[in-house]
């Protein structure tokens, strides 16, 4: 697990209100920091110890997250949460497939607990390029009704790519719903497969949020992506506020990083006023 | 402490206003900051039509700053009047409406529609919920090859005159200027002559960031506007120069204000009020802290209220109470 850092903070107010799929926004660099963007991190789990703790997992890949990784116990942390739209839950017991890429899978374990409390079946797929980038393989094995690890090079679990293997796994697990979290390319592939099979798919945009978010609370509109609403119109919605969990088939995956011509407010938008995002 | 702050015919409860585009619609900020305790809330720049803005990446993190190229995203005037302004009015927060356009005509039209809209009139007639109109003259001028209005005194003045003409005279009209000009005092004078009640200083400073991973510009818009503590000295210089040129003109000063002590620096440089922008992205609960720190900073210096600090840095320095130590002679240093 050398690739990632896990950190537990005492934050009763966050722990109490947390619902699976939500994230926290952490200020990095200390009081006189020169790093002004908050780091948005999915929550791994909350516990009731010490009044309420929150654990999250991250990769120390920039000065801000390296600062975070160097915190020691009893250091104070400036953290806002829980933020964003949680995973919608099945009303009735269902067979649920949880697909996590790299450390994005950390955001699926709280969901797994909640689903199991609702008598759902929980099947895990954990994917990463190499063995050391797979997060939570042991936990998934312990709490999942099944668990499949996929690495590109076969260094852990099955060798291969998620798009090739997922249809078979959906079949075997008789999945009624797919939840996915982590890298954008994975979410895009999973959404495509689920929607082709007519299975509802909820994705949590962990990587997109960590790449584009500045505030995490919806004030800056830095984290937008094109999403089709119930009315069929495309809007630029904020991953931090309307997401991070979105319906996979509603995201215009091929148009990420663009303003689609027909998006509301875009170059060739239908002239209707912008409504609140879906 | 008496924090009241007059700007033209309007008196704000305190000198802290949020900077345009940094507080969302107000709803996103409300869980962290009691809006009714702000001096005023400034809206993101409202344009006539809905705008999706620029593609991502829109914001890059730079040393002590953020570089942004948002492309002025927003729902457009109609949706703003239907949804945003009534909500803000109901929060009991004085609102400064930031307006933008790409031609003088567009500014005139948006100001006219704003002034005529029921929400605006009710708000203005009632408890004075609209505290002002801020003219974002840093918008590109479509009739001048996309050069911003704020780059030329005549263009800036024309826009200010167009908005001023449409807005009730009791509602302050503030011109928000760009620091990216050779002589900001000339632009400020032109705006004052055109009827601006005051100025908002400064908008972001043009800059560029390179993504080290791709070795390409970090923003989809290539260049962007720098904000945050990195620009504070630039902003203070602008406020100082304009206050020196037009001492009686109210200035809303801002650029990188993160603490009460930062705010005090703007007051003494000549600002009547101050704006907090990028800091809201980093710490959405900052306004109450900043006001408290400002009160403490003033009290510690025996200044009775913020209004008494305005322009202090322009007065001759009072003689030091303790004589400075004698300068060492050169020989001793070598
Ligand atoms: C686990 C799961 C199973 C689903 N199964 C079906 C299905 O069998 N048929 C279908 O047409 N759509 C199903 N959906 C799709 C669902 O109705 C919503 O379209 C989807 O959750 C997205 O809704 P939303 O984005 O508006 O989220 P939300 O606004 O959070 O709405 C979620 C809604 O979906 C409802 N819902 C959750 N699970 C089911 C379910 N098994 N059956 C019916 N309603 C459900 C919830 O009660 C809730 O009202 C399912 C969704 C999920 C998450
Ligand atoms: C994300 C973001 C969006 C902004 N949007 C606007 C805007 O719509 N209109 C405007 O006049 N200024 C806008 N600004 C500029 C700010 O209002 C402010 O003038 C500038 O950032 C300097 O102040 P600060 O350092 O306190 O942020 C924006 C700044 C940021 C960071
Ligand atoms: S990160 Fe600021 S709006 Fe999403």
Largest sheet: number of strands, sense, barrel closure of chain B: 8 strands, parallel
Q: Given the helix and strand composition of chain B, which structural class is it?
A: alpha/beta
Distance between the termini of chain A: 37 Å
CATH superfamily of chain B: Aldolase class I
The set of bound ligands, ions and cofactors reads:
flavin-adenine dinucleotide, flavin mononucleotide, FE2/S2 (inorganic) cluster
Give me the CATH fold name of chain B. Answer: TIM Barrel
Number of domains of chain B: 1
Order of helices and strands of chain A: EHEEEHEEHEHEEHEHEHEEE
Determine Rg of chain A (CA atoms, Å): 18 Å
CATH topology of one domain in chain A: Rossmann fold
Beta strand count of chain A: 14
Give an overview of the whole structure:
The complex is a heterodimer of chains A (278) and B (334). By secondary structure, chain A is an alpha/beta fold. Chain A contains seven helices and 14 strands. Chain A has helices spanning 12-17, 63-69, 109-117, 137-143, 162-173, 184-196, 206-212; strands at 5-10, 23-26, 39-47, 53-58, 79-83, 95-101, 121-128, 146-151, 158-159, 177-181, 201-204, 224-228, 234-238, 245-247. In chain A, the strands form three sheets. A seven-stranded mixed sheet of chain A has the order 9-8-7-6-10-11-14, with helices on both faces. In chain A, helix 5 packs across helix 6. With 334 residues, chain B is an alpha/beta fold. In chain B, the strands form four sheets. An eight-stranded parallel sheet of chain B has the order 3-16-15-10-9-8-7-4. In chain B, strands 5-6-14-11 form a four-stranded antiparallel sheet, with no helix packed on it. In chain B, helix 4 runs parallel beside helix 5 (184-193) and helix 5 packs across helix 6 (232-245). The complex binds flavin-adenine dinucleotide, flavin mononucleotide and FE2/S2 (inorganic) cluster. Flavin mononucleotide binds next to strand 6 and helix 8 of chain B.
